[in-house]
Known about the structure:
This protein is an alpha/beta fold and 363 residues long. It contains 14 helices and eleven strands.
Amino acid sequence: MRTPLCDALGLEFPIIGFSHCRDVVAAVSRNGGLGVLGAGGLDADELHQELTQLDAESHGRPYGVDLVIPAKTLGDDPELLAAQIPQEHRAFVDGLYERFAIPRPPDPRSAKEAWRVRGRRRASEQVDVALAHRPALVACALGPPPSFVVDAAHERGVLVAGLVGAPEHVPYQLAAGTDVLIAQGTEAGGHTGEITTLVLVPQVVDAAAGTPVAAAGGIGDGRQLAAVLALGAQAGWIGSLWLTTVESDLHPAVKDKLLAATSRDTVRSRCRTGKPVRQLRTPWVDAWEEPGAPAPLPTPLQQMLVRPQLEMIARYGVSEPAGSAVGQIVGILREWTSARTVFSEVVQGALDAIDQVKGLIAP
Ligand SMILES: Cc1cc2nc3c(=O)[nH]c(=O)nc-3n(C[C@H](O)[C@H](O)[C@H](O)COP(=O)(O)O)c2cc1C
C-alpha cells in the first residue's frame, strides 16, 4: 500500500492521523503512519512543549503539525476584536451558562483561552516554533497557506499541505505553493464544505495534475481507506476515528456520547467558530438554531465568544451540552480501544478490501 506520498513523507502506510491529542499523534507515527498534531489552539510556548514531547514519543518517525490560519482575518488585536462582539451575543451565551448549569470560568476576560486569536502574528510565531522541530509536514486549515508559511517550510525542506472542500479551491492552493492537497468531504468532522468525499476526491485529483492528494472525511475503516486510494488519493487523512481511543483526551462523558451516536446525529453549524463545523448535535448546538437566537458571528469573533464556555463544558464533562467536532463516521465508532489497534485494523481492512476487489476480476 505504499504510495509516492508515503515515500515523500517516510511512511509505511498511507494513513495520516489528525488529532489535537499528542498521544494519538505519537501512536499513529510510531505505527508507520503520519500523526498530525492539531496545534491551532496552542500558543508558541505550548506548541514548543508539545513538540518537544512528540519528538521523544514518536521514536524518530515523521509527524506533522496542523495550524489554523484563516485566509482572511478581521485583525490581530484581541481587545479591538472583543469590542466587536455585540451585547446581544454576550447575553445569549450568558444565558446558556444558566440554562445548562455550566460552571463559569474564574475570570472569562482574563482567561487565556478567551482571547486566543487566530491572527497572522500568532500564526507566524507558531510556524517558527513548528519548523524548529523539523516536522515532515505543515498543514494549513482554512484556505491557501500564506507565503510566509510556504517559504519558511520549503527553506527547511518541509512539505506544506492545504485543505480543499471544492475543486475550485485547487488552483489557489497550487498557486500558493501547496505540496499536498487534502480533499475533505462534507462528511468529515471539523470545518467542512458541502461536497461528499466520493464526489470530491476524483475532481481534486484531476485538478491537482500530479500534486499528491490525501482524502479526508468518512474514513472509519479499511474499506473506506481502500476506496479513497481507488479514487486516486495517495493517503487517507483521518480525524474522527481516534476520538474514542484510549489515548484520546476527550472527557469520558463525551466519548460515551459519541459511541451512542448514529451517523445522523451530526450537524454542520457555525456556532463553534463562525464557519460551518460538522459536530455532534447537542442541546447546546440546537440552542443556536432556536427562534430568537442570534446568528453566529464571523470567525474569530464567534470563537472568542463561545470558547471559554466550550472549554468549561469539556473540562467538566457537563453532560447535556457536551459535544465535539465529529464526522458522520461517528455511527461506526467502536468501544474504547488503543490507537494502535485502530490503526492495525484500518491497515488490515484496506488490504482485505483491495484483495476482495481484485478477486472480482475474471481470470
Ligand atoms: C475533533 C476534531 C477537531 C478538528 N480540528 C481540526 C483542526 O483544528 N484543523 C484541521 O485542519 N482540521 C481539523 N479537523 C478535521 C480533521 O483534520 C480531518 O480533516 C477530519 O477529521 C477528517 O474527516 P473524519 O472526521 O471523517 O475522519 C478536526 C476534526 C475533528 C474530528
